[in-house]
Design a protein that fits this description.
Elements: H1 3-17, E1 22-24, H2 32-47, E2 53-57, H3 62-72, E3 78-81, H4 85-95, E4 103-107, H5 108-113, H6 115-118, E5 123-129, H7 140-145, E6 150-156
Parallel strand pairs: 1-6, 2-4, 2-5, 3-4, 5-6
Helix pairs in contact: 1-2, 2-3
Length: 163
């Protein structure tokens, strides 16, 4: 990790230690994904917290999230929750079982379509990548995301937000 990424990780850890949600809003290309995965790895390795965590991201980035988790923190048991109805049924029944995974990586569309399944869990972290997508508090995505029971929320964006 670069020094500024380590500083970002330490900031995320301090947020966690103080029970505070956060927004990681570094510019594009500065390693927000790595910092976030490192936070989950820190919780696993140094705090014994294995989740469950949910990462919600654009469908086009799910493969990258899975690759980065495998590359930088292979100890985390990650599941990609996406696919046809039959593929999702298999994931729901065989993989998305408490104690069998640490992180579920899924898309904005899936958190809406599969909210009944995903609401069964009490999440440690809900992480929303490209979080500017929930800027409109009246959108279906924003309303759905507020339904999830979680201890912590981390929003990730490289797009400036006006509040």
């Amino acid at each position: 990790m670069r020094d500024y990424q380590l500083a970002g990780l330490n900031w995320l850890i301090r947020l966690y230690e103080n029970g505070i949600n956060g927004i990681l809003a570094d510019e594009m290309g500065l390693g927000k994904t790595l910092q976030t995965i490192s936070l989950l790895g820190y919780l696993h390795e140094f705090r014994g917290i294995t989740g469950p965590h949910m990462v919600v991201a654009p469908k086009s980035t799910l493969g990258n999230w899975m690759n980065e988790i495998r590359r930088f923190c292979p100890v985390l048991r990650a599941i990609k929750f996406l696919g046809s109805p039959d593929e999702r049924k298999h994931i729901r029944e065989d993989l998305l079982v408490a104690g069998k995974f640490d992180v579920v990586v899924t898309s904005f569309e899936m958190v809406i379509k599969e909210k009944t399944t995903l609401r069964r869990f009490s999440w440690r972290y809900v992480i929303i990548d490209e979080a500017h997508r929930i800027k409109n508090e009246n959108s279906l995505l924003s309303k759905t995301m507020r339904l999830y029971n979680t201890n912590y929320r981390l929003l990730i964006t490289g797009t400036p937000l006006q509040v």
